[in-house]
Queue: 2 jobs
Job 1
Amino acid sequence: DGGITQSPKYLFRKEGQNVTLSCEQNLNHDAMYWYRQDPGQGLRLIYYSQIVNDFQKGDIAEGYSVSREKKESFPLTVTSAQKNPTAFYLCASSIRAGISNQPQHFGDGTRLSIL
Amino acid sequence: SQQGEEDPQALSIQEGENATMNCSYKTSINNLQWYRQNSGRGLVHLILIRSNEREKHSGRLRVTLDTSKKSSSLLITASRAADTASYFCATDEGGSEKLVFGKGTKLTVNP
């Protein structure tokens, strides 16, 4: 089955620690996205990537970093500079970049909490 | 930036009733999408409507778009308990490849 796999499902971070959230897709999609969702809120875009080795900041990139070394993978690192990291993180992909009339396919999320 | 705003924030109905959710947005768009999110899960794409379309159907879903009022509505007919979820609209701001999501409507369908 094609889809997006996020791991782990739950993650705990200690003070001063960096943590990395995994996102893998086997849909052969060019574009990938990371969103943050807080309780009762919509999704806010953290970073997105249109092609391998390229990515752009979204609306709330501070305290986060990403890489796109492979088409299938788009890991998100939550750094110690992100002072309020507790949230539900969602990864998504779409077929091609630069075109707005496409659905995005989502993984089932990682819930990050502070210890 | 929050482009779409759904209304109401929460809606509770009985099985078999229709559910209507509204979305308003601020800037011009090329298309608008509706997504569904079950509790603790990712979003699932439901339907996309282009700015030159006024109405679109998919099964029990009916979406309308009024670009003059910058608003859209999602109607779920003959609702089922399994329709219980949050529903989000998402728009492209002036044709950007980025989607901007609203805060969602939480729908509860009581059996």
Note: Residues 33 and 93 of chain B are 12 Å apart (CA to CA).
Job 2
Amino acid sequence: GAVVSQHPSWVICKSGTSVKIECRSLDFQATTMFWYRQFPKQSLMLMATSNEGSKATYEQGVEKDKFLINHASLTLSTLTVTSAHPEDSSFYICSARGTVNALVIQPQHFGDGTRLSIL
Amino acid sequence: DAKTTQPPSMDCAEGRAANLPCNHSTISGNEYVYWYRQIHSQGPQYIIHGLKNNETNEMASLIITEDRKSSTLILPHATLRDTAVYYCIVRVALRTGTASKLTFGTGTRLQVTL
């Protein structure tokens, strides 16, 4: 089945550091990728949607200058948390969906997440 | 996208069928019902989706009522590894190419016990 790979799975860094998270679709071309954030004991919250080759669309309340998203190819999207602070500590999860087909509905597939801890 | 309502938690004995209900009374005619689950500390896993007919795959069965206002996900023989949070999500079909996002509610926490 479709696989989405996310790297790194776990990162600890000092406050003020920028952290980059990669999301790759391994066996399909992802025209659309999504980035979610999940705090402990809460549900997933969508941060932004990105389409290959265009700027990401951010959800209300998500700072686009804080969370930089690049979707330069059909198999790779990156999320960079700039000048990270302890309140940015969370579980970040990417998701990808293949090229829309007129006959087949494409489900969204998720990576295994990146646990980010800012000291 | 229409909202969904799920019970916050359920228990199921291992080997028995787990029936997870979902209410989506405001669903529109062009909206699909999707089910995902999230095992602790992992990303969500796609299970199944459907429009109006019942669906079955290797993981589960999806039963959608005739009026499409509710559905039930059935895990026919639950195991301990099925312990997870199960999310029922309603979303517009993607045939137009419009990026329709998945919005997660609080889901149902299924605990499978010995």
Note: Strands of chain B lie at 9-13, 18-23, 31-38, 45-50, 55-56, 61-64, 70-75, 84-92, 108-113.
